[in-house]
Amino acid sequence: MDPLAALTTALNLPADSPEQVQVLSQLSADLEQQPASIPVLVTTFLPNVVSSKDSAFKRWVIDLLHFGVSRSSLTPEVKLQMATQSLESLLTLLGDPTPASLKASIQCLANVYPLIFRASVVNRVRGPWDAVLQAKNRIVMLFQNAGTSTGIKISAVKFIQRVILVHHRGITDPRLQNKGDPSISLVPPEHPFINAKEMEHEGSQLLKEFVTVLYTSNNPEIITAILNSFGAIIKSRPSTITPLVKSLVVWTPKALVGQSASVIKSIEKALRILLVHISRHGFGAPHQGEINAALSAQQERMAEAARIEHERRIAALEAARKRNQSAPPDTDPQMAKRIRTDGAVQDPNAPPRAPSASTAQILTTFDFTSLPVNVVTDLVIASLKAVSAEKLNSAVAAYRVKYGPPPSAPEPSTSAVQVKQEEVVVDPLKVELDEDELQYEPERLNQDLDLEGDEQPGAEGGTEDAEGGDDAALVPLRLVEFDLPPPRMLTEEERSVEVHQALKRIRGCGEETTVMVASSDEGPPTGRSIRGLPSSEAWILFMVRLATRGPGAGVTSNTAIDEDGMDVEHDDEETSDAKGKGKDVATSGGASSFHSDKIRQMLCDFVMEDFPARLRVATIWMNEEWFNDTIRTERDPNWQPQYDIWIRKLLAAQMHNIDGKDKTLTRFLIDLPSLPSNALFLLRDICTDADIMPVGFNSLRELVSLRPPVRSEAMKILLDLTTHPEKVTRGAAIITVRRWVPDHQPMDDMIRAFALRMLKRLETNPKVEPPQLGLQPAPESGAILEPASTENAPAANGSVATDEDKEDANPPDDAMTDVETSAPTEDVDIQMTDVTIQPAITNTPPPLVPLSSDVGFSSYLSDELEFPVEKTVVLQHIELLLALSVKVPDFLDDLFQAYGQMDSSVQDAIKELITQLIKTLGPNNGKLLTLLRTFPYGAESLALRVLAILTENGRPTPPLVALVKSLIAERQLDPRFLITIIGEMDKADIVRNIPRIVGMLNGKPEERDMVRKVFSNIVTEAPSGASTNMPRVRQSERLAPAELMVLLHESEKEIGLKSTIEAIGICFSMTEVFRMDVLAVVMQQIVDEPTLPTLFMRTVIQAVTTYKNLVNFVTTTLFSRLIVKKIWTIPALWEGFIRCAKITAPASFGALLQLPKDQLREVVDKQPSLKSGLREHVLKKAGSKAKVAAFLEVFGDAPETNPSEGPSAAVTPGA
Question: How high is the mean pLDDT of the chain?
Answer without folding.
Answer: 76
